[in-house]
Design goal:
Layout (H helix, E strand, L loop, with lengths): L1 H23 L17 E5 L3 H12 L5 H14 L20 E6 L5 E7 L5 H11 L4 E3 H10 L10 H14 L13 E6 L5 E7 L20 E4 L3 E7 L1 H6 L2 H10 L4 H18 L9 E7 L4 E7 L3 E6 L2 E6 L1 E4 L1
Parallel strand pairs: 3-4, 10-13
Antiparallel strand pairs: 1-5, 1-11, 2-3, 2-6, 5-6, 7-8, 8-9, 9-10, 11-12
Bound molecules: aspartic acid.
Length: 331
């Protein structure tokens, strides 16, 4: 995970620099996306792949599009990228060699949709949105989620690509079918956005923890854990060990802390502190855990915090698209 991140970091910084450079070149008025309500759009997403994802979301936001459409378009970028091995197409499989995907989406009216342990569909976020808009339910998992996706016209395809299969076979030799939290490669794209109308939405999608037990769900398909949006207050999304995020209903907690008056930064810090305290109480080793939160409030202020160093996130607003290293607890 770390090597890949360091490698990508360099590339992403380069593309962020290009994005900033080209942005500066535009005339002033073109950069003013404030609406009649005076809101300026902004989008945040987790990890290096957030830069490219934000760019796709920004295309929607800068044209006064809806935050919901922006976050769906944004997270589809890493989902569809076969070289991104922790999200969507090309993701790492579970311990049985099956690529199972988790995703959820939430809009400004508290409409929600989610899929868990979904196989064979390249864009789980689009299926989550279909669950939200076209089913009477909010969450579908496994075979039922696949059945629903096919009924909606999604195409069944192989998601296990050569590189991931090779890695899995290698893993089988040493890990004896026991997923060990911190040696697995896993990341999530979580994206939260505020549009020119002042509305918030979010999306979250992942292939989860590599080599996990079949059927394992992390936080990413769980509204309130991996993602939460309250259009009066703010939005939050998470990455890292889903088990720990679920334990504290992480993103709902972050939004509730913002409701109590905390800044997005302080809200993320307090949510991380809860995980830290519970980990210690449970006599588990904090060094084995990584969790990062990003949060955005209704005013467009944002923040992030994580347990250990190495987590970064991308922010795109009228002043450009850039990567930020999140502050962290274990120094
Ligand atoms: N949160 C994801 C999960 O637990 C993985 C990650 O973001 O690293 O499935």
């Amino acid at each position: 995970m770390t090597n890949r991140r360091n490698f990508l970091k360099t590339a992403a910084f380069a593309s962020a620099a290009v994005a900033l450079h080209s942005f500066k070149g535009k005339p002033e008025e073109e950069n003013d996306f404030s609406s009649k309500k005076g809101m300026k759009p902004i989008v945040l997403s987790t990890w290096n792949f957030g830069i490219q994802a934000n760019a796709a979301a920004w295309e929607v936001l800068k044209n006064n599009g809806r935050a919901l459409d922006a976050v769906e378009a944004g997270v589809k970028i890493p989902e569809g990228d076969p070289t991104e091995r922790s999200v969507g197409y090309g993701g790492r499989p579970d311990r049985d060699g099956r690529v199972t995907l988790d995703a959820c989406i939430m809009d400004e009216n508290a409409n929600i949709g989610s899929v868990g342990c979904l196989e064979f569909i390249k864009h789980p976020i689009a299926v989550a949105r279909a669950v939200m808009e076209k089913s009477p339910h909010v969450m579908l998992v496994g075979d039922g989620a696949l059945q629903f996706a096919l009924s909606q016209g999604f195409v069944k395809e192989n998601l296990l690509l050569e590189e991931s299969e090779k890695e899995w076979k290698e893993w089988l030799k040493t890990s004896q079918y026991k997923p060990i939290a911190n040696i697995e490669n896993h990341d999530t794209i979580g994206m939260i956005a505020l549009d020119a109308d002042g509305n918030l939405s979010g999306a979250c999608t992942t292939s989860g923890m590599a080599f996990k037990m079949h059927g394992r769900l992390g936080d990413s398909p769980i509204i309130g854990a991996g993602l939460y949006v309250d259009n009066e207050i703010g939005a939050a999304t998470a990455t890292g060990h889903g088990e720990e995020v679920i334990r504290i209903s992480g993103c709902h907690l972050v939004v509730e802390l913002m409701r109590q008056g905390k800044s997005p930064q302080k809200a993320c810090e307090e949510a991380v502190a809860r995980i830290v305290n519970l980990t210690r109480k449970r006599n588990k080793n904090l060094k084995d855990i990584q969790v990062g939160f990003i949060a955005l409030n209704k005013k467009g202020e944002y923040g992030s915090y994580c347990i250990q160093g190495g987590f970064n996130y991308a922010v795109n607003d009228a002043s450009g698209n850039r990567l930020i290293d999140a502050d962290y607890f274990l120094k």
